[in-house]
Write a structure and sequence with these properties.
Elements (H helix, E strand, L loop, with lengths): L6 H10 L15 E3 L8 E10 L10 H18 L4 E11 L9 E12 L4
Parallel strand pairs: 1-3
Antiparallel strand pairs: 2-4, 3-4
């Protein structure tokens, strides 16, 4: 069986895979993401994780967009928990080292602790 994907369907998929994941929640852009510890009085609300990228789309997405997309997804999850502050605990970029022509980051994962801080 020969399956052909029309070019007019392939191009939009390729273009979408090239961008950072946008913020989904209104207000998620106000969530502060930092490595610094939260101020006193902040209440822990949960652990959050954000990721973007895979081996197949890595060649079409910049390293910066992979990292930004992972952080945007983490901000959305923190916002859904009612948080306005995230302390990053782990940031991991998977690098492609199997072939010289496929260098760079192919996925980004960010893990953090989300807090609700009255002072922000």
């Amino acid at each position: 069986m020969n399956i052909r994907i029309p070019l007019f369907l392939f191009i939009p998929i390729l273009v979408i895979s090239c961008a950072a994941a946008p913020l989904q929640a209104t207000g998620a852009g106000n969530v502060l993401v930092t490595r610094n510890a939260p101020a006193q009085g902040c209440m822990f609300v949960g652990e959050v994780l954000g990721s973007q990228g895979n081996f197949w789309t890595a060649e079409f997405t910049s390293d910066e967009d992979l990292i930004r997309g992972a952080r945007n997804r983490m901000r959305d999850k923190a916002f859904d928990l009612g948080a306005n502050f995230v302390q990053i605990e782990l940031e991991n970029q998977s690098h492609n080292t199997t072939h010289d022509s496929l260098g760079g980051v192919y996925s980004s994962v960010v893990v953090g602790n989300a807090y609700e801080c009255p002072e922000l």
